[in-house]
Amino acid sequence: MLLAALLVLGSAAVDAARVWDGSRFAWYDTDAGDDFKSALPIGNGRLGAAVFGTPTEKLVLNENSVWSGGWLDRANPKSKDAVPKIREMLVAGDITGAGESAMDNMAGNPTSPRAYNPLVNMGIDMGHGSGIESYTRWLDTLEGTASVNYIHGGANYSREYVASYPHGVLAVRLTADAPGKLDVKLSLSREKWVLSQTADTGSGESGHKVTLSANSGQSSNAITFWSEARVVNSGGTATSPDGKTISITGADTVDIFFDAETSYRYPDAEAAQAELNRKLDAATAAGYPAVRSAAIDDFSSLTGRVKLDLGSSSDVGLQPAPTRLSNFKENPDADPQLMTLMFNFGRHLLVASSRDTGPRSLPANLQGLWNEDYDPAWQSKYTININLEMNYWPALVTNLAETQKPVFDLLNEAIPRGKAVAKTMYGCDDGFVLHHNTDLWGDAAPVDKGTPYTVWPMGAAWLSADAMEHYHFTQNETFLAEVAWPILRQAARFFHCHLFEWNGHWTAGPSLSPEHAFIVPDGLTQPGRSEGLDLSIEMDNQLLHQLFTNINTTCTILNLPQSNPDCAAVATYLPTIRPPAIHPTTNRLLEWHNPSYTDTEPGHRHFSPLWGLYPGSLLTLNTNETLADAAGTLLDHRLASGSGSTGWSRAWATALYARLQRGEDAWRNAQELVKLFPSPNLWSSDNGRGTPFQIDGNFGLVGGMAEMWVQSHGGGGAFVAGAWWN
Ligand SMILES: *[C@@H]1O[C@H](CO)[C@@H](O)[C@H](O)[C@H]1NC(C)=O
Ligand SMILES: *[C@@H]1O[C@H](CO)[C@@H](O)[C@H](O)[C@H]1NC(C)=O
Ligand SMILES: *[C@@H]1O[C@H](CO)[C@@H](O)[C@H](O)[C@H]1NC(C)=O
Ligand SMILES: *[C@@H]1O[C@H](CO)[C@@H](O)[C@H](O)[C@H]1NC(C)=O
């Protein structure tokens, strides 16, 4: 790094200019204004903060169990009688009739589960409305902290933000380089459904208190939360001018500790507040320096498990992140460290948004942990026809296996919900079914209303494969027996009931290929129409093949007897799942069983029929080269037709090319993602204009990049090349 070296040698001349490690830090010479997607995200796996760094500091705070309401039973009882008839219509070629009946009888009521909601905003007014100079704001992806530094009125002010997993709180330290310089007014605010707000000075060592309690708006069945900031000043005096805010004047240092607890995890206000007080008392007693160092030790012990070195950038790597992003569009090869930063940032986000925080821990949702809207895009829920799974693509291959625990906690919530929906909607008395989204209650009913996405009974099959992968990477037999096996077994039992024999194959349906539609060909009803619903979907067959293979593997590892009904059933189903097929003229892997179907969107963003190439391993080169070639031909066709149109779609393309061992194509797609989709704070997005924010692209990119260097699938023959891992 030539320029960095020069800066170090000539440091007097370039005064306070800091030499940034462009692989580790995203830094800014401006605040975020009112742009959420410029705010810096930190988190402790349950509480998140987006740091705006504005003159009056704005922190958008989140807690991962604050959603728009309690459990909603959305199951549609008309479905049970309709499913066999819809199936018959599909067998008879009445594709349109089947789709219409499915929409009439199978859509959930209401069509959407709960939405993820904001917690509170914290305001820190230091009276620095104008006159700020030498401003710097940065995110440290190794330590998981954010900071702001500037000169005002001749004094040098610093703000530091830490999310502590060990103490379970967020912590802030405000300092100035001269004593008595800090005037701070601290407030908590929320737009909707505030139940109470208080402030209380004079609680000594344990801090002055600002509290805010609110709920999700319903009169019954609401989610309620209690939040509190403790303000500890050294020097100066504290007052509460209005009973809602704390005002400190003339302090040397001000520390703030914050927690929120919700009715999702505690039975009543008393229990939630006791937990809140326990955490805040412990954090204030320990003091900021101890909270900070424990938080950083913990965070960096996870992020520090991988060091990626892709070479050094030219001087562009020393620029503020928005400049780097804009330079990268023109000349990506000049800033390889931006790719490394995106890799490190993705791992930072996973550690920040997904930890084992005790019972009912919750996984990273469509926005991870960070959300400022009461009506976020796609409810910021858990979309399980790709997005939630993609969130965890970095988890195993970059040595963060423990971040997956919340996924299995959520499945624990979802199993009873999915059993109820299997019974009500499919007449299946055993096993559980999930459709293409869920929420914190493990919602299992079909979501939205459209034939290319609503009726997809495969969510549990996919997530069960992630449980099996967790075992393969960790070799934890207790996990396999106690966590993965119940998920696998209950997922399979639904299919024992649901599958039917068609053309000599055990077949699932009605179902669909997420979220793509085909044109109904001549000879079927109604030709020329765009439809989504069908039988024997290629992706379904791959998921079923994986599910029954995983059951069989588990039976062997756990030494279960041949007579075990779950193990015995494998011999019935596995050999007769329809194998993948290749189109006779295009040589592309078929997405639907009928080669006469044509794509409505040849450049569709999903790569559902390629599931078996990545994240599965049924279509890989060392499994079956013919199928891998056909998969590659489909992948090339999709991308040539405009796919890769979202951040997560590019990430999936990256991983798929990596599995095909086509390094140039994998790298080009990874670079395209970074050219097209990051917002100023590096969050991935769903289109090139940076909105809406969707975090799966950040996570998927890490998984896809890792796949370029480390692969371990298709029979255990791992190869490692090109990078250093530790
Ligand atoms: C302000 O203080 C920080 C250390 O807290 C230092 O890194 C920075 O260079 C100082 N800024 C100026 C302009 O002196
Ligand atoms: C193995 O899995 C069990 C069950 O999930 C878990 O309690 C335990 O901590 C895991 N062991 C290790 C070493 O991670
Ligand atoms: C199940 O696994 C065993 C042991 O690996 C294998 O011999 C058997 O063929 C598998 N069963 C099926 C139906 O594939
Ligand atoms: C590979 O897949 C093709 C298409 O399903 C099949 O015909 C062929 O037998 C498979 N080859 C091997 C070696 O399994």
Automatic annotation (TrEMBL):
Q: Which residues form the signal peptide?
A: 1-16
Any one Gene Ontology molecular-function term assigned to this protein's record: alpha-L-fucosidase activity
Name the InterPro entries on file. Answer: 6-hairpin_glycosidase_sf, 6hp_glycosidase-like_sf, Alpha-L-fucosidase, GH95_cat, GH95_N_dom
Could you provide one GO biological process annotation from this protein's UniProt record?
carbohydrate metabolic process
Q: Which residues form the Glycosyl hydrolase family 95 N-terminal domain?
A: 27-265
Give a yes or no for keyword Membrane in this entry.
Answer: no
Record domain Glycosyl hydrolase family 95 catalytic: where: 288-708
Listed name of the protein: Glycoside hydrolase family 95 protein
Which organism is the protein's source? Chaetomium fimeti
